[in-house]
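Onboarding guide, step 5: your first structure request.
Type a short instruction followed by the sequence, for example:

Predict the 3D structure of this protein.
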Amino acid sequence: MNSRVGSFDSTEISYGSSSCCVAMAADNAETPSPLKPEMSALQLLSRNFDSLFDSADSEFFADARIAVSGREVPVHRCILSVRSPFFKSLFSRKRGVVKFELKELAKDYVLGFDALVAVLAYLYSGKARPSPRGVCQCVDDGCSHVACRPAVDFLVEVLYASFTFQISELVALYQRHLLDILDEVAKDDMLVILFVANMCGKACQSLLGRCIESIVKSDIDILTLDKALPQQIVKQITDYRQELGLDMPDHISFPDKHIKRIHRALDSDDVELVRMLLKEAHTNLDEAYALHYAVAFCDAKTTSELLDLGLADVNCRNSRGYTVLHLAAMRKEPKIIVSLLTKGARPSDLTSDGRKAVQIAKCLTKAEDYYKTTDEGKASPRDRLCIEILEQAERRDPLLGEASVSLAMAGDDLRMKLLYLENRVGLAKLLFPMEARVVMDIAQVDGTSEFVLDGIDSKNLVGTKRTAVDLNEAPFKIREEHLHRMRALSRTVELGKQFFPRCSEVLNRIMDADDLSQLAYLGDDTPKERLVKRQRYMELQQVLSKAFSEDKEDFDKSAISSSSSSKSMGVMRSNGKVIDKACEA
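The system replies with structure tokens like these:
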């Protein structure tokens, strides 16, 4: 955790357009008048406890830990017990140094590290800190970051944590702030606030009532409400709509029985049953908004199978004006987005309020997640991956072509093509695991058998079926399974070039080396020939390392540029107070 500059009064709230801080900075005020001695002493006491929470040295005195997201926050039982009835009861049941998982303390809603820090810092100092900008800001340059989804998520998490830890004054503070920004919150994001306000019960009665009132008058359909909210709240909303006699379109009410049957089949991942229901001719996929339903609520495999039926319009709009690609951007699932784009979904289509899918994705993505760099071989954040896919889809060349010079030069030599494709896809799995997984799933690579070359230890290759084939034999006999494998691998490479050009460029630098294909075959090599190949391997390893360094530098520069142009966003970093277990491992 970082020490924050400036003191903040927990009874004051700032509603500046550049942040969602639940406090008022002292440096914005005029020169303060001299404080009474007792007030000065209280402020000093607050600062002392605040420094205890922030200091890296305080870990030595800590006698408890709270773990969340692979990190641990050292805390002091006596302080938390005095400040919170919840912690007093918790610590009284266990002696000695203890460790708790946050998900065990707050079981009904997922809390993040930053929300935990905000609540604990208040318990130590008695003052609410400003919300961390990287956590409360999205990556949409046109957003004021007052009520975007990252800001709402943080405020809601702190509200629920305050309620769980029985800190009534902090619950009241964050409830007031949410009430003040509620009119600026998107209706779909308001469902999150309503869900948590309902869990907080009487403590958030005002917030609950305001949210229900807004949702009643909105165009949010009953299926979305049914999936997002408890049944008693859904019934309350539908009853209010009927009592008010609002002139609601058909989609506000529950769908008819034929559409319900299709939705239930999708809930069961039974696309074959959907096909049978369509034969009854009571409805079709577009009238049932079946593809919208699958994209919003089903897994990527079911959505892909539904798309493969070829019976749905991928650019059809539902009654709220959303295409399936808009919903996929809200879902933040890269595999579904790529599946839709490969079937012809248009990334340029606008919602009724003038937003494209990529803008929706940007408004939902935390700046901290988007701008942080990804280490070599680590999975990229899903949110950032979705944005990159949609951005690339808007500017991509519709002609896919071959991936690089090496594959094009292979011509009709199937042996060389197979060798190239296996090497390229295998390398992609090592270097870009998340990106590779997305395109491999779309290309259905797992349904084919991997070719294992002589001289390669197949025990080190995991995750796919294998066929022991010597691609170095002459003549090479092509079989049907070879063709299936080659088509799947070719499709994988094409999709990688289409949606992840940054990754493809790194692979091209390595794969276009003329003698790479010979390195995998040791066969009857002499010791001298093996030494030469080893030296060449080391050279390629250096090329790989250099390519990664350049790639990360380019991304860091673009991140810094984008960050500085959008209100000089700062990303919070941790100090010695927080222990990152992933790094220790």
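Each response can be followed by summary notes, for example: The longest strand covers residues 64-68.
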